[in-house]
Amino acid sequence: MKSSWSTDTSIIHSLDQENRHTGVISQSITPAVAYSFSNSENAAAVVLGEIEGTYYGRYGNPTTNELERQVAKLENGEAALGVSSGMAAISISLLAYLQNGDHVLVTKDVYGGTFSFLKNLAPRFGIGYDYIDCTDHDIVERSIKENTKVLYIETPSNPGLTVLDINGLSAIAKKNNLTLIIDNTFMTPYLQKPLEMGADVVVHSGTKYMNGHGDVIAGFIIGKQTEIAMMRKKIMGDLGQNLNAWESYLIMRGLKTLPVRMKRHCDNALAIAEFLEQHPAIKKVSYPGLASHPQHELAKRQMKAMGGIVSFELKGGLSSGQQFIDNLKLGLISFSLGDPETLVQHPASMTHSSIPSEERIKYGITDGLIRLSAGLEDSDDIIADLKQSLEKIANTQTRELQHN
Ligand code: PLP
Asked: Is 185 close to ligand 1, i.e. is its CB under 6 Å away?
């Protein structure tokens, strides 16, 4: 493979030439769980990690290994680990760097599942945490305790789309000996490469854009070779959170179209954000590509493009938010994102409902907030759908006013 090729080209020709024993163009699937060895010495060396090889499916699989190689290359990391979900990637990475008595600083608007893991499971392992506003670096520095070991961030965040300064936060992490872990799900390595900006570890929900077709649950951790090997053997293997061959195959198929898909998601999201921003029924639109976004300049420096997610707030709160998504004809109400279909959700009643309402406000999740994942459809059709839904709400409100 030529090293001068751009990502758009090399991602399509990414199959490891050395592994192309049969001359296949697309990846083959190896479902085998167990592998045989020429002798016992050889078997022991593979299990001990002294020589490369696969020995039991819970610790790795040749198809998944090929995907891991591709993901590590995309993120420009030493190694990657494919795991059974984004939450497996998040929990494994946190457990790898935190022990009983340690503390983690977490950006305040974080994915609901991460919030739930920290609230329900981390305390059982004696791990403490604080949510902080990571846009303010003084607050970050002041919040570091003697036992703080990890700074965990998501940028742009779900669902608020806050953009955090990776270079700046990595400098703070380095100065204070913290491991900086970044959830890069919303961007994918195509739009943002946190390791190149000083992050130590990147995690992904592979379920979203990386696979891109809504038919796989998967996760990735990318970092240093020795640390990834430890996570594979001592955490993923012991907890049984491996990624199987079929899922890996589907993700490799999805990755070939990652650049074209991301470009279309981004174009559609910008068109939607611009439409919503000028609509009288909308209180606020958050999209890093809008000049009104508080971190628009930072986003332009740090991200190749602005992503496929738009968050916005309707005037009228909870009932308007729910009516809006109920009225849609093309957009589907769904908990996921990053699929070909436009997906919408109402965080207060759906993804973030596990967070008490008074706390949700602190994290910017207001009752009227909607998260929209721009699909790959024609943007005119998506916008026409949003328009008809907003008009319906306006008509209902007018009728209610006339009745009162
Ligand atoms: N990180 C982010 C930003 C997410 O949006 C999600 C899921 O929506 C996850 C992690 C968890 O991923 P998974 O559902 O694959 O466990």
From this structure: yes
Give how far the C-alpha of residue 378 lies from the chain's centroid of Cα atoms, to the nearest Å.
Answer: 24
Is any atom of ligand 1 closer than 6 Å to the C-beta of 154?
Answer: yes
Residue 402 Cα to ligand 1 middle (Å): 44
**Ligand 1 atom having least distance to the Cα of 219:** 15
The residues with which 310 forms a beta bridge, in sequence order, are 372
Rounded Cα gap, residues 127 and 271, in angstroms: 43
Question: Hey, what CATH class is 2-30+61-255 in?
Answer: alpha beta
pLDDT digits (tens, 9 = 90+) for 217-229: 999 999 999 999 9
Catalytic residue at 232?
no
Q: Catalytic annotation on 58?
A: yes
Taking the C-alpha atoms of residue 271 and residue 277, their distance in angstroms, rounded to an integer, is 10
Question: Ligand 1 mean position to 40 CA, how many Å?
Answer: 41
Pick the CATH number of 258-403 from 3.40.630.30, 1.25.40.180, 3.90.1150.10, 3.40.50.20: 3.90.1150.10
Cα gap 13→81, rounded to integer Å: 21
Between these two residues, 346 and 103, which has the higher pLDDT value?
103
Give pLDDT, residue 358.
81
Q: 109 near 364, Cβ under 8 Å? A: yes
